[in-house]
Specification:
single chain, alpha/beta, Glutamine Phosphoribosylpyrophosphate, subunit 1, domain 1, seven-stranded antiparallel beta sheet, about 35% helix, binds 5-amino-5-deoxy-1-O-phosphono-D-mannitol
């Protein structure tokens, strides 16, 4: 979703602002803008559409100034036009904003009555005017900034410049992430650490409700009630290389290829010989096992949770509830004692998932909340009682790939760890499963080195209207994920179904033009899947089989075969990730879509 950058430097900042916006492109956006303050005047450039339009404007008419703010906007209030793009300005103030000001209509009306005019349809435009009014009332910016924040309902991360104070940048955070950065050359405000790669050496994370200002020499941070707060500077956990494509055509392809390394990192971090240990979630090792688990997430992360439910229920024999965060938070769920909440999120900033965590902590403070998250500094990670980090590295492609595989891998380890404690998994069995996970690293490398099966399968998607994905057991949610991946990046309609459910409706879709991807590893009810395969094949569909058997007579029913190495109960879904992701990628490339930034999508969904 929207991205914010602010820079106050010893040199002109426009190029840094544009470079930072480029590093945040992956979040998804539909317009962009930058504004600098130079010799008492604001200089502004805005453009609808992709960033190159803004860059072209800057090349024609570079804007001067050593202090500036920039924004990539993902439209919520008002269309993605130049007028609605940020920054939004009043005479004295320029502001960029992420989030939604829920009471913007009331504020707009009030400000209008005071003679203020608005040019955009955005909620954000009330902010510079409101601050200006408060500055006139208070005669000073600090109390005015605090008074402005006190009037806002909703979520925001804000960066602002004030014309009379060219040596400072102002900021505030509530419900939307924000951090500060510093180097010898300047100070920065950003919504995303990646924006600061190559600019800042150190970062400071701003907490919920905090606000303040930076100058070249100082940082003042205040809590919501106006009390000063202190935070430490930490090294920026990223380099410029992290934000590159590493020679691949797309970020998504690079990230698919990074998966063997990600799995290797996870095993190194959490497995010590045959012991599994989660140092940032020690309660998993010390407290009694929970009587119930609730797993909540969105999108792809939700699919990872659905697969893990099969694993956890089999080994722990306790109820495991899995829900979509946007449903769970409005569902009046019954949360008993001894319940472990597991939230899953690549970004750790997904608004609905975060709200579930906060609701759970409010309602049952006696329970523990565990986050499985790729960003250790994220709100979700920091507000949970324990963290299992995914160690996937920055995921920039909007379609989640390596973070999903990493979620499955840590969920497999978590299941084994808890099953070991419950006495449901002997150490010899555990050692066997861990050996399979280690073998998965090299198996993935081999699959990525030869993707001929996927390429052949992708040609079956030429000119089709949609596709069906079928699986059973832990591979049923993988069918959901395969379908989601395809629709996200190729814009083809796709459905994932439990193979046994097909005859209850979706079978009506089947004709000779429909590609049907059947996930058929021998681990999960293969005989049943083969029966479903016959039903599909009898109706003439184009069957794409994902299999781990070397040969079988039922392979004859397939239009394409994608072979995966043999896995075990836990490792098989990890292996299945690769062909599902590559297939979606190849089909999207065939259709010529924007693979890394598909239309309408945002990487990190920070609004409800
Ligand atoms: O950062 P999160 O894992 O919380 O994000 C959840 C979903 O928004 C995300 O998985 C989304 O579905 C992706 N575009 C999937 O590729």
């Amino acid at each position: 979703m929207c991205g914010i950058i602010g820079a106050l430097c010893r040199y002109e900042v426009r190029d840094d602002l544009l470079a930072a916006l480029q590093r945040m492109e992956y979040r998804g956006y539909d317009s962009a803008g930058i504004c600098t303050l130079h010799e008492g005047a604001f200089h502004q450039l805005k453009a609808a559409g992709k960033l190159h339009h803004l860059k072209e404007k800057n090349a024609r008419q570079p804007i001067p100034g050593c202090v500036g703010i920039g924004h990539t906007r993902w439209a919520t209030h008002g269309e993605p036009t130049m007028v609605n793009a940020h920054p939004h300005l009043s005479e004295q103030v320029a502001i960029v904003h992420n989030g939604i000001i829920e009471n913007h209509l009331a504020l707009r009306q009030h400000l209008h009555q005071r003679g203020r005019n608005f040019s955009s349809q955005t909620d954000t435009e009330v902010l510079p005017h409101l601050l200006e009014e408060k500055m006139a009332e208070c005669g000073d910016v600090l109390p005015a900034w605090r008074d402005m924040l006190a009037e806002l309902h909703g979520a925001y991360a804000i960066a602002a410049m004030i014309r009379a104070l060219p040596g400072s940048l102002w900021f505030a955070r509530k419900g939307s992430p924000l951090l500060l950065g510093r180097s010898e050359q300047g100070m920065y405000v950003a919504s995303d650490a990646l924006a600061l790669a190559g600019l800042a050496d150190e970062v400071m994370y701003i907490e919920e409700g905090e606000w303040g200002r930076v100058t070249l020499d100082a940082v003042d941070v205040y809590a919501l009630d106006g009390q000063p707060v202190q935070h430490d500077w930490e090294p920026l956990p990223l380099s410029v290389e992290d934000s590159g494509k590493g020679g691949f055509r797309h970020y998504m392809l690079k990230e698919i290829h990074e998966q063997p390394g990600v799995l290797r990192n996870i095993l190194r971090a959490y497995v010590h010989e045959t012991t599994i240990r989660f140092e940032q979630a020690m309660f998993l090792h010390s407290r009694p096992l929970p009587e119930r688990i609730v797993m909540v997430a969105c999108g792809t992360s939700y699919h990872a949770a659905l697969t893990a439910r099969y694993w956890l229920e089999r080994y722990l024999q306790i109820p495991v509830e899995v829900d979509i965060a946007s449903e769970y938070r409005y569902r009046d769920p019954v949360i008993g004692d001894n319940t472990l909440l597991i939230t899953l999120s690549q970004s750790g900033e997904t608004a609905d998932t975060l709200e579930v965590l906060r609701m759970f902590k409010r309602q049952t403070p006696q329970n523990r909340a565990l986050a499985l998250c790729n960003v250790a500094s994220s709100s979700l990670a920091r507000e949970s009682d324990g963290l299992i980090e995914l160690f996937a590295g920055p995921e920039i492609g909007v379609a989640s790939t390596k973070a999903y595989m990493a979620q499955l891998a840590v969920l497999a380890l978590l299941t084994m760890c808890m099953a070991g404690r419950a006495g449901a998994l002997k150490s010899s069995e555990m050692a066997g499963h861990l050996r399979y996970l280690e073998k998965t690293v090299t198996d993935m490398e081999a699959m990525l080195a030869d993707s001929s099966g996927v390429l052949q399968a992708s040609s079956l998607f030429a000119g089709v209207k949609g596709a069906l994905y079928l699986g059973r057991g832990p591979c049923y949610p993988m069918a959901l994920e395969g379908a989601l991946k395809l629709k996200e990046i190729s814009y083809l309609h796709a459905e994932g179904y439990a193979a046994g459910e097909m005859k209850h409706g979706p079978i009506a879709l089947i004709d000779s033009t429909l590609p049907v991807v059947v996930i058929a590893p021998k681990q999960y009810h293969l005989d049943k899947v083969i029966s479903n395969l016959h039903e599909v094949q009898a109706r003439g569909a184009r069957v794409i089989l994902i299999v781990d058997l070397p040969e079988a007579d039922w392979f004859a029913h397939a239009s394409a075969l994608i072979r995966i190495p043999e896995g075990d109960y836990f490792s098989t879904p990890l292996l299945v990730c690769i062909p599902l992701q590559l297939l979606a990628y190849e089909v999207a490339c065939m259709y010529g879509t924007d693979v890394d930034q598909p239309r309408n999508l945002a990487k990190s969904v920070t609004v409800e």
